[in-house]
Amino acid sequence: MKAKISDTSRLRIGVDGEGVTTLVAFMLCPLACEYCLNPQTLSDSYPFKEYTPEELYMELRKDELYFLATGGGVTFGGGEPLLNHQFIKEFRNVCGDQWKINLETSLNVPSSFLETVIPVTDEYLIDIKDMNPAIYKSYTGKDNSPVIGNLRTLAERGLAGRCVIRIPLIHGYNTPEDVARSESEVVALGFDRIDKFEYDIDYAKRKRDLQNA
Ligand code: SF4
Fold first, then answer.
1. Number of neighbouring beta carbons within 10 Å of residue 141
2. The ligand 1 atom nearest the CA atom of 30
3. pLDDT tens-digit profile of 94-138?
4. Rounded mean pLDDT of 171-184?
5. pLDDT for 15 beyond 90
6. Cα four-point dihedral sign 154, 159, 107, 54
7. Which CATH number does the domain housing residue 108 bear?
């Protein structure tokens, strides 16, 4: 089994999970966000490397001492990491139980993909964009019913405490009132770790322009 990986970023502290983490960015994503922060992951025409779970483990384990000393590990992002759900499950078999495995995900995937990774995941960092289906569709091009279904699954399994729900304010797409409504809806589902923030649209545009240059 191999996965296409855009990049790895080492020695991250407190940005995507507890302790010291390495971020692994998978290629490809089901969404088409207007201001994608990782446009280099959206198409096979950008550079990537292919890894088996064993090969990735061999590369990441140079930081194992930091992971173990700080309660950190690996954060799988992208792109959409859950497109590689079987790879992540297999990676857990290879790395063992001591590393944290975190996911940075939109949750806009079939429920079976989420089911695969629930037994091997420590923390979920979930960017819901906006709970309003019309806003979500206008920004991402996709329906958000899989997101809501997967949020319900995590809450029903008693995993809400392991989830951070990210709710961005995206100029031109939602308003502070929409963000507040989304927050109320996810709180009603049982989540209480909420990260509201404002997208840096200029940064995303610069990144996209550099990518296309
Ligand atoms: S979910 Fe993330 S990687 Fe996918 S299109 Fe949106 S910003 Fe880009």
1. 12
2. 4
3. 999 999 999 999 999 999 999 999 999 999 999 999 999 999 999
4. 97
5. no
6. negative
7. 3.20.20.70
Structure tokens at 161: 């405490």
Q: Specify the ligand 1 atom closest to the Cα of 29.
A: 4
Q: What total of structural domains would you count in the chain?
A: 1
73/87 Cα distance (integer angstroms): 16
* CB 106 less than 6 A from any atom of ligand 1: yes
Tell me, using a 6 A CB cutoff, whether residue 108 lines ligand 1.
no
Domain around 152 = 3-212
Ligand 1 atom closest to the CA of 127, numbered from 1: 1
Q: What is the pLDDT of residues 52-111, one digit of tens each?
A: 999 999 999 999 999 999 999 999 999 999 999 999 999 999 999 999 999 999 999 999
31 lines ligand 1 (CB under 6 A): yes
Residue 29 Cα to ligand 1 middle (Å) = 6
Tokens describing residue 187: 């709180």
